[in-house]
Write a structure and sequence with these properties.
Structural class: mainly alpha
Helix content: over 70%
Order of helices and strands: HHHHHHHHH
Low-confidence stretches: none
Shape: globular
Distance between the termini: 43 Å
CATH topology of the largest domain: Tetracycline Repressor, domain 2
Mean pLDDT: 90
Number of helices: 9
CATH architecture of the largest domain: Orthogonal Bundle
Largest sheet: none
């Protein structure tokens, strides 16, 4: 059983990093500032994390994992065709990015914040590989699934960056564009 104090400390640190990273790039947030905002000591912080970026990417990855689990449940139920599942899964990730919109916006222009988009590309790479493995939809024989998955993941992250840079594109337009860009074999 996890000590409730550890859970409270982690939750406070995670909430503080989201609040601070919503105001400026994570690379400009010091451990001292984050620890103070979370109400923990620097020593306590370093017992659990390496950097503020470490905390932030853990939060983002946890949220993405939860969305992936929902998608896997939806797909295993088999109630929707693959093209609908693709739109729903894409929408799930777009919802995640909307939830953390300011964090992702700050990370677009700060090379020190690459870990934020790395979390997205890792998520979509893993999602793509799992989809190819379990859905019966995959690239032609002999084509590396890992390379295809990374290609799709980076394209998706690029589409999200473009969307965050253009307030004239709606969420639904983004989902539609990304779904239309999916390979024919995907659906």
């Amino acid at each position: 059983m996890v000590d409730p104090r550890i859970t409270r400390t982690e939750r406070a640190t995670e909430e503080a990093v989201i609040t601070l990273a919503s105001t400026r790039p994570i690379s400009r947030i010091s451990v001292s500032e984050l620890a103070e905002a979370a109400g923990v000591s620097r020593a306590t912080f370093y017992n659990r994390y390496a950097t503020p970026l470490d905390v932030l990417t853990r939060v983002l990855r946890a949220d993405l994992r939860a969305r992936r689990a929902e998608d896997e449940e939806r797909r295993s139920a088999g109630t929707a065709p693959p093209d609908v599942n693709l739109r729903l899964a894409t929408g799930d990730v777009v919802d995640h990015v909307e939830r953390y919109r300011e964090i992702y916006r700050h990370a677009r222009h700060d090379s020190a914040d690459h870990g934020i988009y790395d979390a997205l590309t890792e998520h979509f790479t893993d999602y793509s590989l799992a989809f190819m493995r379990t859905s019966g939809h995959a690239p032609p024989e002999g084509v590396s699934h890992r390379i295809v998955a990374r290609f799709l993941a980076h394209g998706f992250a690029g589409a999200l960056k473009a969307w965050l840079s253009d307030d004239g594109v709606s969420r639904d337009e983004l989902v539609e564009a990304v779904s239309a860009a999916a390979p024919v074999w995907w659906t």
